[in-house]
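Suppose a colleague, Dr. K., hands you the sequence of a protein chain of 132 amino acids and asks what its three-dimensional shape might be. Before reaching for any lab equipment, you can write down a predicted structure in token form. Begin with the sequence itself:
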Amino acid sequence: MTPVELSISESPIIPASFGSGDWGAELRFLGIVRGTEADAKIAGIHYSAYLPMARQVLEKIALEMQQTHGPHPLQIHHRLGWVPVGEASLIITTAGRHSAETLARLQQYLHLIKTELPIWKEFRDQTPEFSQ
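The predicted structure, expressed as tokens, is then:
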């Protein structure tokens, strides 16, 4: 069975590895919070979601991609809550037999997550301890 791990939570990102010898390419995307947004310095991003809806959309994305591209290993984890500059807020890991098809699939996952997954972000210029 091909592993599929989907999660949306405040837990830190822990990368999966699918090094079973079945796949010729394993690719990982890490979305890192950068220190500026619209030319303004920020301390981090606070992510929020209505979890039942967000989980349903994430499961739909994964199911449709598995049906379209055939079974493939997948890890998607999107963090919620406070994520400071320099830390990862999103990981997508997938594997495939060939690098070009795996890279295209990874890009498609990223596009679908950014356009369909109902997770909202609030840019903050101060860390949570100091902002009121």
